[in-house]
Amino acid sequence: MSKKRGLSLDEKRKRIMDIFFDRKDFFQLKEIEKIASKEKGINAMVVKEIVQGLVDDNMVDTERIGTSNYFWAFPSKAMIAKKAKLQGLKNNIETYEQKKVQLEKDIKEAKTTRTDTDKRTEVLKDLAGKEELCQKLSKELERYKECDPEVLEKMMEETKMSHEAANRWTDNIFSIKSWCTKKFGVEGKDIDKNFGIPEDFDYLE
Fold this sequence. Notes:
This protein is mostly helical and about 200 residues long. It has three domains: about 10-75, Arc Repressor Mutant, subunit A, CATH 1.10.10; about 75-115; about 150-195. Helices cover about 70% and strands about 5% of the residues. The protein is built from seven helices and three strands; from the N terminus they run αβααββαααα. A hairpin with a 2-residue loop joins strand 2 and strand 3 (about 70). Helix 2 (about 30-40) crosses helix 3. The longest helix has about 40 residues, at about 75-115. The chain is flat. About 5% of the residues are buried. It comes from Paramuricea clavata. Required for proper homologous chromosome pairing and efficient cross-over and intragenic recombination during meiosis.
């Protein structure tokens, strides 16, 4: 059985808005939390944050009356807000379209007026040379990356860890040899010979 997917933030916001639209009434936060938890499947602990987000987005109105805060929202206002947002997006599109046309015009004019003068050719040649030098220096820098203090420090840490690990294994081998000698009376040299352990096998300094 697949695990039930939790509600997304947008779904929670929509369900909170449905509480206002369906009931067309004024609510205190505790009332919204109760309805959202009981009827909309939203944890009451997150309702306050969601409602505040809707207030910040001008989708829900709020007013303090006496010692209590009341919240409300009506479909008519939501429709007006959506229309205003849509109009704003349309205006943005129109503005960007005008900019696009102007830029295309400027590019076209630049192409027609630009001529290959000796100075421009020289500048382009100099630019190409500098780009080539930059690539060469980047490759050279990569070769000396190992000299970077951070890289060296990391290598030293890894070396230390490897050194400690090697000595732990050495200690384990000596412990096993000692156990075999006591348990079976086998000489250490015989164990070394059978298992290919060098005569100078010892801890790393």
